[in-house]
């Protein structure tokens, strides 16, 4: 299945030679609204959720050896996780180059101390936050930080994985569906690499099946993820497509 997805994304990447990843693919194939919703979900909860469960894994790795063979206290795990993510955010705010040097240092430590399970946890945490810092400006990092803390306080690792995975698979399905639609609408569009039609069709069906199964098996988390995704629709029309707002609504908002 993953190889089929890789082939689909190879065609998307060679067909639309612009930066932006999912945003570009959805914008070119399905239009601006799905593309906006992809950015909305990524910023509002996918990226914070990923940083959160990486941080929780880090806290688990640090605390668990101290209490073996008993289970580590959940409150302590979350406290250590919060301290870890706070340190990484502070380091990124202070200096991006310092964060990069820390990443290099941890790489060397990992080479000489692979037996310590804590090191991969620290590296994953730092890499996640450095990636955020490199892709978004400092205000975005500061906005993400409280979202991460809130998710950390309220959620568990596997809940957060389900929470983030729903929208990820949804937009993967939409991207490959958009590729199929674009093929039909623009058959003469240059495609240096083209996979057999059956590959994206089967892959898209499987992705939508995963989305539906997630809703069925964990309706609370995935339902919340779905609701947050759809909450971007009014934001889109209020901020991007203001021309679609009725005049009487515009007057009400401006008063």
Helix and strand arrangement:
Blueprint: H1 2-15, H2 22-29, H3 32-67, H4 74-94, H5 96-112, H6 118-135, H7 138-154, H8 157-185, H9 198-217, H10 219-230, H11 232-239, H12 247-254
Structure, described:
The chain is mostly helical. 82% of the residues lie in helices and 0% in strands. The mean pLDDT is 79.
Notable characteristics:
255 residues; 0% strand; 82% helix; mainly alpha
Give the overall shape: globular
The assembly state of the depicted protein chains is single chain
The major beta sheet can be summarized as:
none
Helical content band: over 70%
Brief write-up:
By secondary structure, the chain is mostly helical.
